[in-house]
Structure formats: structure tokens, C-alpha cells
Amino acid sequence: MRNQDMHPNASFQTLHIMTINVHKGFNFFNRRHILPELRDAVNTLSTDMVFLQEVIGEHKEHAMRYHDWPGVTQYEYLADSMWPDFAYGRNAVYPEGDHGNALLSRFPILRYENRDISIRGTEERGLLHCILDIPGQAEVHAICVHLGLRQTHRLEQLALLCDLLDTIPSSEPVIVAGDFNDWRLQANKVLVECNMHEAFALHYGQSAKSFPARWPFLRLDRIYVRNVSVRNAEALYRRPWSHLSDHVPLIAEICL
């Protein structure tokens, strides 16, 4: 049931969000399929929006190999009955299937677009831009991001993200979250020019360590915001999260 169904006239001031690279439903080093455990863990948080990276739409070989492989897409399986609206941006396509970014939402997604930001045909990447209808609020923009592994590619992709941000009315709330692969810590410098601010850097002086999940020392995952404030930004380092992906999930309260 959607929040707005429970409170049809309510005005929502705070959104609880989460971002996680789900590593295609496998744990560190791909040793074990853990999607059912990941769904159980995500459900315990009762967040309003979940930004997913490396989520599989289809994989024919895995479907035959693993007895607990879901009969629907991974993002539908994770959405379950908790998030009635979802959007998927297919980025990588291969003979066995495809994977990309997804957004799960308690609120209606009015429309969405997946922008291809792959650079010269390597490492298929995308920006999934969703516009949400949240009671009592202007249109809220949520952009799920997964950038490339090469520094030169990331800088080009950040420029493409800024191009997208420039198309959004300057007064409307924007949340950008995902796996930036930004181990050289350049994204904050670029995105501040678009008036975007990173949640953890605002409160703790630096972005959260998020990779690898069991011994995190690289600051790869981020939550950027514009025209909102942030409370209680937290990286989920403890079990079960440290054993459910190779990335640490990030959560935060977004105050509209």
C-alpha cells in the first residue's frame, strides 16, 4: 500500500532513502546467490525510495543454475509488496540477459528516462532519471547513477550528469544517488558547480567509505542533493549488510 493511499491528504516532508550496488544478487567474489537474503534485509528498513545499481533484468543461465532465482526481474523481486512503483534502466545487454539501474518507490513515478552515458562503447553505463509525485510537494527528481571505472570516462559522465541537472528547474528538489566509482574523489568538485552537495561530506566532512563492504576504504557510493536538507546519513557497515554485496549501502533522511 502506498503512503499516499494511507494518508490521501498528507504532505510528506521527509523521505527515507537508500542506495546500494546489489552486485547482481551475489555476495563478495560471486561465491553465493544472496538475493532472497538481500530482499529480507532491505525490507526491514522500510525506506521510501531505493536506488539500485547492477540489478539484473534477465539472466537465462542464472535462472537455470540457481534454484532460488526469482521468476521475475530482480528489481520486481526486491520491490515485492513494499514499493509499488519502480523504474528500470537497462544499461548492459549480453547474450544471457541484461542489467542496469533501478529505482523502487512508495510514491508514483510520473515518468522516467534512462540516459545512455557509455563512453566510446566501453562499460555500458546510464543515468536513470525519475520524476516522482509526492503529496504536498513539487515534482521531486531522483537520479540513479552508475559511473565507469576509468577516470577520464567518469569525468565525461559527470559532465553529462551536469547537463541533465541543468534541464531540471532550479527550484525543484533533486536527489542523485548511486555508485560513482570515484576513488579519486573528483565528483564533489564537479557537482558543486551544479549546486549539488554530498550528504556525508556535508555532515562528516568527507564521503562515506563504502568499498569493499567487508573492509571498506574506498569512497565510491554517494548521495547528492539540491533544494533539500539531509539528516541521519549512515553507512550500513555491520552484518548482514557487510555480507550481502561488495558495496556498503548508504541511507539518509531527505527533508523536503
TrEMBL record:
GO terms for molecular function: catalytic activity. Pfam families: Exo_endo_phos. It comes from Vreelandella zhuhanensis. Residues 18-247 form the Endonuclease/exonuclease/phosphatase domain. GO terms for biological process: GPI anchor biosynthetic process. This is EEP domain-containing protein. The lineage of its organism: Bacteria, Pseudomonadati, Pseudomonadota, Gammaproteobacteria, Oceanospirillales. Gene3D superfamilies: Endonuclease/exonuclease/phosphatase (3.60.10.10). InterPro entries: Endo/exonu/phosph_ase_sf (IPR036691), Endo/exonuclease/phosphatase (IPR005135), GPI-anchor_lipid_remodeler (IPR051916). GO terms for cellular component: membrane.
